[in-house]
Give the backbone structure.
Amino acid sequence: MSEPSPHRIDVHHHLCPPDYLAAVSRHQPMVPILTGWSLQKSLDDMSEAGVETAVLSITTPGFWFGDAAETRRLVRLCNDYAARLVADHPGRFGLFAALPLPDTEGSLREIEYALDNLKADGVGLYTVYQAKYLGDPAFSPVLAELDRRKCVVYTHPVCPDCCKNLVPGVSEASIEYGTDTTRTIASLLFSGAVARYGNIKFIFSHAGGTMPFLIERFDRLALNPATKTHLPHGLRYELARFHYDTAQSANPSALSCLLKIASVSQVLYGTDFPFRTSIEHVDGLRTCGFSPAELNAIERDNALQLLPRLGG
């Protein structure tokens, strides 16, 4: 049976603009696979796997190196660069705009610019900024504005300062990224931020990190009177409303666990390009026992429900 024409929508697809590469390289060594990123490599990878549209975002290490003015400038350059790709390649790209957090004032300005001028599809946040997770009160003004705009918020994990180089020979991404996604989910839930800002549509990377495996512990924590008041609709209600991508998680073990918490309608095709290929995730999803209708939902229809602009 032949594959249909390109139709998949990848919500977890990274780019590395030249200005970003130059700026970050002044502060720390860049991951070699990112230094080799190019527009053509993105397009080639998408074509091989039948990906019609990839939503662009900037991955780690992010933008913050201690200087608010530098961060604002770099974020603006990267958002403008990605927006040009969207405009120059109609139908091929979307954009989750970066914000200069932990700079709140700068982030509020960038939300206005990115959503109103660039027409970004949503914003991209990291799981933690200077040891503060997304439910921290420091981020309340930003979350309130994103809630007012009913924004899609894609999140990407980083390795926090507490947990670098813990296991010799094991990369931080192998363990800490999934763990840090879980930390920020917990922060949003148990601080009450999710209930306060219920119009935000969150996407969590890598099938929700380690959260599905830790669900029994989360359930018990939600019964604590000190945290129960922050979840007026209940823990499972909020977890079932979140969206989760398949990046580095397109396998039966990860997705079967996630699907005990959220329905297929909340799962989005994501690839983590350029760290992984799109075709690997197409192949992986086909080992998970999904029906053709479920695969189509994960690979396209669910994203269109969340990001309808990508449909035309």
